[in-house]
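Tip: read the tokens left to right.
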């Protein structure tokens, strides 16, 4: 979904704060990763400040595909958003990824829009928390 250059440590640190990055570990080995942000003016410019947490770059080690690691990471983000009194957990993804979109929908996210962000056809999802 992303190029190796986009996921290189330097590239990630240029775009995200280290405190926003989360690593899931299973049996002492990295299992999954994601970015969780308090705001996202690029993809969600109209979202009221403080209302949501935003998930980006959710990725799971290939060896764990289909074993619940992605859901576990979303569970953590959901719990964090609830602790902070947020109304939504929000994310976006490539609109042309039906399996990924189905995963988010089966988790409980609802589609709330689709639009071009730069050259990318992007689908937007939110998980109501209240």
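Filled-in amino acids:
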């Amino acid at each position: 979904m992303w190029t190796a250059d986009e996921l290189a440590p330097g590239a990630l640190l240029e775009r995200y704060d280290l405190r926003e990055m989360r690593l899931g570990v299973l049996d002492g080995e990295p299992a999954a990763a994601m970015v969780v942000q308090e705001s996202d003016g690029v993809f969600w410019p109209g979202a009221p400040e403080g209302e949501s947490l935003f998930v980006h770059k959710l990725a799971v080690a290939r060896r764990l595909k289909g074993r619940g690691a992605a859901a576990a990471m979303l569970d953590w983000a959901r719990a964090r958003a609830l602790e902070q009194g947020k109304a939504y957990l929000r994310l976006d993804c490539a609109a042309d990824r039906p399996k990924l979109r189905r995963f988010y929908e089966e988790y409980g996210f609802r589609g709330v829009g689709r639009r071009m962000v730069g050259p990318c056809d992007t689908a937007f999802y939110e998980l109501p928390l209240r």
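The beta strands are 21-26, 29-37, 52-60, 88-94, 110-117, 120-128. The helical segments are 4-7, 9-15, 69-83, 98-107.
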